[in-house]
C-alpha cells in the first residue's frame, strides 16, 4: 500500500516538531521520526484505527492513536492517505 501525506498532515508534522524543538530539539527529532515510523506501519494494517463517528461514512475516515498523538487517515484504493496529525491535548482536526 502506498503512503500519501496531505499538505495539512505535512504542516501538522512541521508544527508539532517545531513546538517540541522550542523546548528540546533532540526530543523533537525523536518524536517526529517515531511518528513517521508508526505511520508507515499503518500500511500493513490499515484497519487498525477506529472510524470517525462524525464522518459521512464513519469507516472511511479513521483515527489511530500513537502515544499522545492522533493520526487521521483514509484508504483510497491502494493508497493510505494521512489527513491530519495532532497532539491529543489539541482539539480534533476537521477533515471528515
TrEMBL record:
<comment type="similarity">
    <text>Belongs to the RelE toxin family.</text>
</comment>
<protein>
    <recommendedName>
        <fullName>Plasmid stabilization system</fullName>
    </recommendedName>
</protein>
<dbReference type="Pfam" id="PF05016">
    <property type="entry name" value="ParE_toxin"/>
</dbReference>
<dbReference type="InterPro" id="IPR035093">
    <property type="entry name" value="RelE/ParE_toxin_dom_sf"/>
</dbReference>
<keyword id="KW-1277">Toxin-antitoxin system</keyword>
<dbReference type="InterPro" id="IPR051803">
    <property type="entry name" value="TA_system_RelE-like_toxin"/>
</dbReference>
<dbReference type="InterPro" id="IPR007712">
    <property type="entry name" value="RelE/ParE_toxin"/>
</dbReference>
